[in-house]
């Protein structure tokens, strides 16, 4: 039987109970029907309850007005560290209020505004504010609504990375980023010494962008996780990365190149880089074009113990003497939108990004 979902009026009752309970420091009400009514009571709760450390409101039909209420409540809140607003369509207006909040709030460490329909103006506002904010360690700005081809938000976020020395994780999925954009970020990463997790998945980056990334990885010793999933770096881009990982970089721990139109030559080059690079522990390659050489190469890495089964998204099997690779449910953020309650081990291997670079609880 499907369970009844919490409405805004229901949350009013819940908030009254929580105000009187000093022992609860976290609240997860994702995938309910709170709307702006519930956001009003959530904002009041943030003003009254001074023990709440994390709050997950993802996909609750909260709009710009509700976003404004929550953002303004955080002006005076000094306890909340982790807030997830994922999937609430607060739009550009709500995003601007959250950006303004970050100029005042000095306790929030992790903010997720992915799939919130942010506009160009609010993304640029976040980039501007984060040049000064010294407390935010992780921010998710996935899938803003952007128009035009000039990549202004990426340019501003690149400038921010040159100035910010606290940000550890930056998620820029679905930013319509092309090679010019990744070059802006790479130029900043020559100077940045705090960012450990860069997510630029689901963009339009090709092999030319990998020239810049491979070059910066020769000198950057901070980046530990890079998500390039669902771009188009192809064999040439994979080989650029492989050469750097084999000969220069000894800090990157995880690389995802899922669905990048890479064929056997590029995939084998990546596998070869792991033989000389003892630090790279997690590689995700599913959705590319496997040939027999690829299957044999990754089978050998797994069988020799160089690549642990939990640290990749493929598993070898043999049919009629030929090696093939099957997909397994491991990755950097497989459970970003949902999480099973039946297996903690499964959760860790499916969300390796937050395990390798923890920025508070993975809400």
UniProtKB/TrEMBL annotation:
Gene3D superfamilies noted in UniProt: Ribonuclease Inhibitor
SUPFAM superfamilies: RNI-like
Repeat among keywords: yes
Keywords: Repeat
Key word Repeat present: yes
InterPro entries: Leu-rich_rpt, LRR-containing_regulator, LRR_dom_sf
Pfam family, one: LRR_6
Protein name: Leucine-rich repeat-containing protein 34 isoform X3
């Amino acid at each position: 039987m499907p369970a009844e979902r919490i409405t805004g009026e229901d949350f009013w009752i819940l908030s009254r109970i929580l105000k009187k309970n000093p022992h609860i420091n976290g609240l997860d009400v994702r995938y309910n029907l709170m709307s702006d009514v519930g956001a009003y009571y959530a904002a009041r709760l943030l003003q009254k309850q001074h023990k709440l450390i994390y709050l997950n409101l993802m996909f609750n039909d909260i709009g710009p007005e509700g976003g404004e209420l929550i953002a303004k409540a955080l002006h005076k809140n000094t306890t909340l560290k982790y807030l997830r607003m994922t999937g609430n369509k607060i739009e550009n207006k709500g995003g601007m209020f959250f950006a303004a909040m970050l100029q005042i709030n000095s306790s929030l460490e992790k903010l997720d505004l992915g799939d919130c329909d942010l506009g160009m103006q609010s993304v640029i506002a976040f980039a501007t504010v984060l040049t000064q904010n010294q407390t935010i360690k992780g921010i998710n700005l996935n899938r803003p609504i952007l128009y035009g081809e000039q990549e202004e938000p990426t340019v501003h976020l690149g400038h921010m990375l040159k100035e910010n020395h606290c940000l550890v994780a930056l998620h820029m999925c679905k930013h319509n980023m092309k090679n010019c954009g990744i070059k802006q970020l790479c130029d900043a990463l020559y100077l940045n010494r705090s960012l450990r997790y860069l997510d630029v998945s689901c963009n339009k980056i090709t092999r030319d962008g990998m020239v810049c990334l491979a070059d910066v990885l020769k000198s950057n010793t901070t980046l530990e996780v890079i998500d390039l999933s669902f771009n188009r770096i192809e064999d040439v881009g994979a080989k650029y990365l492989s050469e750097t990982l084999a000969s220069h970089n000894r800090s990157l721990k995880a690389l995802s190149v899922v669905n990048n139109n890479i064929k056997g030559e590029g995939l084998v080059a990546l596998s070869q880089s792991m033989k000389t690079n003892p630090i790279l522990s997690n590689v995700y390659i599913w959705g590319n074009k496997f040939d027999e050489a690829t299957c044999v190469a990754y089978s050998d890495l797994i069988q020799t113990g160089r690549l642990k089964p939990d640290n990749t998204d493929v598993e070898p099997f043999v049919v009629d003497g030929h090696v093939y690779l099957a997909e397994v449910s491991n990755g950097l953020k497989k459970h970003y939108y949902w999480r099973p309650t039946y297996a903690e081990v499964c959760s860790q291997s499916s969300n390796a990004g937050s395990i390798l670079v923890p920025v508070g609880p993975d809400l």
